[in-house]
Amino acid sequence: MNNTLSKWGIEQAGHQDGESILTLLKERASYLKSKGSEQWSFLLTGNEDDELLELITKGLFYKMTIKDDHDLVATFMLSSVQEDWDVHLWGESIEVDTVYLHKLAVALKYKGNGIGDILLNWIIQHAIELGNRRIRLDCVAGSMKLRRLYEENGFKLIEVVHDHCLYELELR
């Protein structure tokens, strides 16, 4: 599979993308659960659907598609404002030059094609273009594959809080 960005399109998702993004996130949550992980299992209850749809409508989610057929390949959320979860893990911050990355998910049929690396490279460049100085994210401490992905893309482990690894990447 060609992994150059010319094959893919990355753009802000809109309201019309809500259901397909929810489906992708739930597909990944179900897959993780089948592998023994509780990461994102809360998504399977449907209790978060309205909140996620609102975040998508606000323009905080992005989507990666194949340019030729618009098939949804991946999604992620970027926010320059701390969500409740960020405050819970990081503490309240007044920094205005930090973006928080959440819900990075690749559709199962594209798993193993280097999409995570492509997305992180694009996210880093996009955050720089937006004038941010750092990107923060978290992941379940036991998710070694995900931790390796972030570390291989330059993110530094800051600390482990409530069984979640807090990662940060300084952009300049």
UniProtKB/TrEMBL annotation:
UniProt-listed PROSITE patterns: GNAT
Regions annotated as coiled coil: none
SUPFAM superfamilies in the record: Acyl-CoA N-acyltransferases (Nat) (SSF55729)
InterPro entries noted in UniProt: Acyl_CoA_acyltransferase, GNAT_dom
N-acetyltransferase domain residues: 19-172
Alphabetized Pfam families for the sequence: Acetyltransf_1
Organism superkingdom: Bacteria
Protein name: N-acetyltransferase domain-containing protein
Species classification: Bacteria, Bacillati, Bacillota, Bacilli, Bacillales
